[in-house]
TrEMBL record, chain A:
Transmembrane segments: none annotated. GO terms for biological process: lactate metabolic process. This is L-lactate dehydrogenase complex protein LldF. Signal peptide: none annotated. One of its GO terms (molecular function) is 4 iron, 4 sulfur cluster binding. Residues 299-330 form the 4Fe-4S ferredoxin-type domain. It comes from Nitrosomonas marina.
UniProtKB/TrEMBL annotation, chain B:
Residues 16-96, 143-227 form the Cysteine-rich domain. It comes from the Bacteria. GO terms for molecular function: oxidoreductase activity. Coiled coil: none annotated. It comes from Nitrosomonas marina. One of its GO terms (cellular component) is cytosol. This is L-lactate dehydrogenase complex protein LldE. InterPro entries: Cys_rich_dom.
Length: 472, 256
């Protein structure tokens, strides 16, 4: 059966330009990451530390969120809780209406992508402008991000040059990267100065101090969070950490894992709106905390590890499947291995369960994960939930169960626990191997790219019996 | 995936062989060569004839009840406190890493810890425990290697195949580009997502073709069947051989 995802994967594989662009960027990011961790022992120790910090924070999630809210409010930051993306969108809209604002300038935020915020605000007559260069490219092209960190990684320089030329006809055509960046900078400058509201994501929320930490390389995050009179930050509830001391180790491993940088150009610590004696900064700061299935994921001790993610993107950079099909083929907000475990849990196995099949369980993702998320183990767990009969917490559990497949596995298992039957079948297969070869040749998913494996004349069981190898 | 063995142990007199279903049905000579290699080191081999499959295909497909039933049938076949040798990192990894999870909360959970501790992948056992010293009797040749993802990331034994091949004087070993990347087999993945699997194996086959080697050597027959099948489909001259068969063929004197 060719399913929705398989069809999409096949289409993606036929897009050679996108594949080349994706492969070239992930190869670069792999190299940069490798160079950022020259000492294996140091990597292990950094990783252990970060893993412990995130595991600790996730395990205390409810308490830390309460503490965070108290401290944010004490600092003058207004906190809004949203169970669903609809509620989160509505909250943004309410803030916009309160300030009579019709334009919002945005820093990079995957949570706003999860909310579908731009489309929502557009339908309510509010214009959104992305100010992260990659996000701006995506917005101009009317596409979706194909990567968490490098949203336009599927586009090459020439494509971006053509896009800019078509969108900004006043700018002469150029393929020079810094000229393109300058063009975007000039275009954005005016909007930073005049936007009534700025919106950003958040990397870490510090419960102890009530601080929002935001890292970025372009300065647009700082502009969005300081220049407009109102700043709205959006975050998933899982981004909370216990204390300020937790942040430096996480930042160090986040930026190294993501782009190979020891630190980003900008590190923003947002602790309050403008104070009475201060000359700049927003007069109002809001934080919208989005749940959207996260507390359900939290309730399962094994699946909970999913929430430890610090969104570095290393798993997708090192995933051979992501490299081949690119981010869009996943049809999710977050692609790659982490998306493969996160999106079916958030949105249901009934619509996204097949994504769990988009993995060879090779383990490359877990190997590079700075917080040791056991992605293959969680994929295995979700495959089980996808086909299991009894119900469980993940929505859509059991929706992938197919009668024929279940029967095949039953027969297979019966055969494997009855060695007499197993040995007769393998023996017959090898003794009638010419016929068996012809049957095997018809398994087209295999033989499209591979020769049929030739069956030997006898099995290992038979050969070792003939050699009189001890049976017990 | 972090697994630390309780103890490496001294050289044993007797071991069990877990032949694996893939070797049983498609590459039996890899199993026979494993027996020869072990016996030459003075190790007696027991092959329980009732063994079938470790259960991994069902485990990785989410069919846990079926995987458990099949794994349980294997568990009973290796009662003596001696090592269990699997000429496959994938099957050894299933027993070592995944059996304890699969049996969690089951009455026989404790016995999986014992079995997990006793299972070895073949190249790991030859180097770490038997500390074999090989003498090459073959003609000069060049080989490309492919270590499976389970050897690399689950069993942490990917380098053992290199250590063994480097003992052979007339063998030049070449590691293909992107050696650490998966070949795209992934068990049922190759059937469920054949398009992606094909893209992956074609890239892998190309990297191996680019080495100019005469043979492809690996420790897992799943990968070998996948990459070897792709090479053969493209009429490549590179044949694929399991490490056990390659080592035995080059290091024993043919009986006259």
């Amino acid at each position: 059966m060719t399913t929705k995802f398989r069809t999409q994967f096949a289409k993606a594989l036929a897009q050679h330009e996108v594949r080349n662009n994706t492969e070239s960027v992930v190869n670069k990011l792999r190299k940069h990451r490798l160079a950022a961790f020259p000492d294996q022992a140091e990597w292990i120790s950094m990783r252990r530390h970060s893993t412990a910090i995130r595991a600790n924070a996730t395990s205390k999630l409810p308490q830390l969120l309460e503490q965070l809210e108290t401290n944010l409010q004490r600092n003058g930051i207004q906190v809004h809780w949203a169970d669903t993306t609809e509620q989160a969108n509505q909250t943004v809209l309410n803030i916009m209406r309160f300030h009579d604002a019709r334009f919002i300038i945005k820093g990079k935020s995957m949570v706003s992508e999860e909310m579908g915020l731009n489309d929502f605000l557009n339908t309510h007559g509010i214009e959104c402008l992305e100010s992260d260069l990659g996000e701006l490219i995506i917005q101009l092209a009317a596409e979706k991000p194909s990567h968490m960190i490098v949203p336009a990684l599927h586009k090459n320089r020439k494509q971006i040059a053509r896009l800019f030329h078509s969108q900004f006809p006043s700018i002469p055509y150029t393929e020079d990267i810094s000229a393109l960046a300058q063009a975007a900078r000039r275009f954005l400058r005016h909007h930073f100065a005049t936007a009534p509201v700025g919106l950003t994501g958040v990397n870490f929320m510090i419960a102890e101090t009530g601080t929002l930490c935001l890292v970025e390389n372009e300065g647009n995050g700082r502009m969005c969070s300081t220049a407009p009179p109102v700043h709205i930050a959006v975050s998933g509830i899982e981004k909370v950490v216990e204390c300020l001391d937790d942040v430096p180790p996480l930042l160090g491993i986040l930026t190294r894992s993501a782009t190979g940088q020891p630190i980003t150009t900008y590190v923003n610590m947002i602790s309050s709106p403008r104070k009475p004696n201060e000359k700049d900064g927003p007069t109002a700061v809001h934080l919208i905390l989005l749940d959207n299935g996260r507390s359900r994921i939290y309730s399962d001790p094994e699946l909970r590890d999913t929430l430890n993610c610090i969104r570095c993107g290393a798993c997708m950079n090192h995933c051979p499947i992501y490299k081949h099909i690119g981010g869009h083929a996943y049809q999710t907000v977050i692609p790659g291995p982490i998306g493969t475990i996160l999106e079916p849990q958030k949105n249901g196995l009934d619509s996204y369960g097949e994504l769990t099949q988009a993995s060879t369980l090779c383990g490359a993702c877990q190997e590079v994960c700075p917080v040791s998320i056991p992605i293959p183990k969680i994929i295995n767990r979700l495959r089980w939930e996808h086909i299991r009969k009894s119900s469980c917490s993940t929505p859509g559990a059991g929706s992938g169960r197919r009668k024929t497949e279940a029967i095949i596995w039953k027969i297979w298992a019966w055969n494997c626990i009855h060695p007499g039957a197993y040995n007769r079948i393998t023996s017959v297969a090898t003794s009638m191997r010419r016929l068996a070869d012809r049957i095997l040749a018809k398994i087209s998913p295999w033989t499209a790219a591979r020769a049929v494996p030739r069956l030997p004349d006898t099995t290992l069981h038979e050969r070792l019996k003939a050699l009189k190898i001890d049976n017990e | 995936m972090d697994f630390t063995r309780a103890s490496a142990g001294p050289k044993p007199n007797t071991v069990y062989l877990f032949g694996t279903c893939l070797i049983d049905l498609l590459y039996p000579q890899a199993g026979v060569s494993t027996v020869h290699l072990l016996e030459r080191e003075g190790v007696n081999v027991i092959f329980p004839q009732a063994q079938t499959c470790c259960g991994q295909p069902a485990w990785n497909s989410g069919y846990r009840d079926e995987a458990l039933a099949v794994a349980r049938a294997q568990l009973k076949l290796f009662p003596r406190p001696i090592p269990i040798i699997a000429p496959s990192a994938s099957c050894a990894g299933m027993i070592r890493v995944h059996y304890p999870t699969l049996f969690k909360g089951e009455p026989d959970e404790a016995s999986t810890f014992d079995v997990a501790d006793r299972v070895y992948e073949l190249t790991e056992f030859l180097t770490d425990i038997l500390k074999v010293d090989l003498t090459d009797l073959g003609e000069p040749t060049t080989v490309a290697t492919h270590s499976s993802c389970t050897a690399r990331r689950e069993m942490n034994v990917a380098d053992r195949i290199d250590l063994l091949l480097d003992q052979l004087q007339n063998v030049t070993r070449i590691e293909p580009d992107n050696a650490e990347e998966c070949c795209g087999f992934g068990g049922t993945f190759a059937i469920k997502q054949p398009e992606i699997s094909t893209a992956m194996v074609l890239e892998k086959a190309k990297a191996i073709e680019n080495t100019g080697a005469q043979q492809l050597i690996g420790q897992d027959c799943g990968c070998l069947m996948n990459i070897g099948g792709a090479l053969k489909k493209q009429d490549s001259q590179i044949s694929h051989v399991h490490i056990a068969e390659f080592l035995w063929d080059r290091t024993h004197k043919a009986t006259p």
